[in-house]
Amino acid sequence: MDFKMLCVQAVLGLTPYQPGKPVEELARELGLDAEKIVKLASNENPLGPSPRALAAMERALPDCARYPDGSGFSLKRALAGKLGVKPEQITLGNGSNDVLDLIARTFLGPDRSAVFSEHAFAVYPISVQSVGAESRVAKAHDGSRGPSYGHDLGAMLGQVADDTTVVFIANPNNPTGTYVTTKALGDFLEALPPQVLAVVDEAYFEYVDTEDYPDSLQWLDRFPNLIVTRTFSKAYGLAGLRVGYAVSHPDVAELLNRVRQPFNVNALALAAAEAALGDEAYLQRSRRLNREGLAFLQSALQARRLECIPSVGNFITVDVGREAGPVFEGLLRQGVIVRPVANYGMPRHLRVSVGTAEENTVFIQALDKVLGC
Ligand SMILES: *Cc1c(COP(=O)(O)O)cnc(C)c1O
Question: C or N terminus of the chain, fewer CB within 10 Å?
């Protein structure tokens, strides 16, 4: 039996998501201690989790024979309070990727299409095509009217067809680190037909401190077709637990919650996320470490005449001036894991997450060895 014959057409067009190489795997391959490996490949928080999140998980652990609270009441109440929205506007997910999947399963399907940008987050085509919908990919900016590789919202609007029900905007985008401004996004939402949902993916929201970067939540009252997604995986340091959420019109949330599996967020994740949300000092430490690390990496790479895409996230994507695959492999042999992005149509770039000051230095030293500087 050739199971590809059974498979829906759109899925045949997908390639599996390539995650960052796990530390343990490289340690085994190199015969090294895992502690010697520096992983800057998945935009994780180099501080580790908030101590408050760890303590909350310890308190929740003895109860793990019970199902979690499927409504996520307590976390939603805390989020609503913090964000100034109503709990009925929030949909919790097993990571925000789960929320993106819920959106696709609720609003997409055969005979429908979704729009996103070239070089955009790789999860969008997976969610779209796995439900049989079509991906309509808009060209990214070429540098003449917006940041190179960044979303061109005009081009994205141009891709909206009669059968389009969802547009995905990553702000900032991964792997480019580029963002769309308050003005540009506001104009886009104004021009988008009201029957098309705009999903603004703000996975790195807490890291951005650029003045013309929008907080999309402010627009929810004005644009009922807006869905904002955020996550605890990045600045909140809980990537391994898988918690994310959408904020939307309550009617949209009610539909998403029909599709959501009843216990999609586990009990430890619910407890840890709520505790992390209350740890403002941890968040500030994370932001400061990232600001300093990003500036260090940017200037170190520029000093080596390597062009970086200006980033507002917790990672930087750099043109290594040659095919990036062998540079990635060379870095692995030095015990440093970064992320090749050829699958995003960027074969000469590597994406490097901002680590601790020490990790960033180890990366630059390893890069010098590999590039033969
Ligand atoms: C990391 C990331 C996410 C978050 O994924 P989770 O499932 O919440 O871990 C979402 N969108 C983008 C663009 C990302 O880079």
Answer: N
Nearest atom (ligand 1) to Cα of 242: 9
The residue contributing the CA closest to ligand 1 atom 2 is 203
122 lines ligand 1 (CB under 6 A): no
Pick the atom of ligand 1 nearest to 232's CA: 8
pTM: 0.96
Indicate the fold that domain 9-39+281-371 takes in CATH.
Answer: Aspartate Aminotransferase, domain 1 (3.90.1150)
Q: Do domains 9-39+281-371 and 51-279 have the same CATH topology?
A: no
- Measure the CA–CA gap between 289 and 355, rounded to whole angstroms: 8
What does the radius of gyration of the chain's CA atoms come to, in whole angstroms?
21
Does the CB atom of residue 170 touch ligand 1 within 6 A? yes
- By CB atoms closer than 10 A (0-12, 13-18, 19+), residue 9 is exposed
CATH code of domain 51-279: 3.40.640.10
Domain locations in the chain as residue ranges: 9-39+281-371, 51-279
Please tell me the distance from the alpha carbon of residue 214 to that of residue 339, in angstroms, as a whole number. Answer: 28
Ligand 1 binding pocket includes 117 (Cβ within 6 Å): no
* pLDDT of res. 373: 64
Quote the tokens at residue 370.
């590999």
pLDDT of residue 30: 87
202 lines ligand 1 (CB under 6 A): no
The reply to whether ligand 1 has any atom less than 6 angstroms from the CB of 95 is yes
Which tens digits make up the pLDDT trace of 126-176?
Answer: 999 999 999 999 999 998 888 899 999 999 999 999 999 999 999 999 999
What's the pLDDT score for residue 187? 98
15 Rama class: left (phi>0) / alpha (psi -120 to 50) / beta:
beta
User: What is the 187 CA–ligand 1 centroid distance (Å)?
Assistant: 25
Tokens of 79: 């989020």
SS3 370: helix
Which regions of the chain are under pLDDT 50?
A: none
DSSP 8-state code for residue 341 = -
Q: Which of 242, 240, 270, 275 is nearest to 70 (CA)?
A: 270
332 lines ligand 1 (CB under 6 A): no
* Cα–ligand 1 centroid distance for 202 (angstroms): 8
Measure 167 CA to ligand 1 centroid, in angstroms: 16
Which amino acid residue places its CA nearest to atom 11 of ligand 1?
203
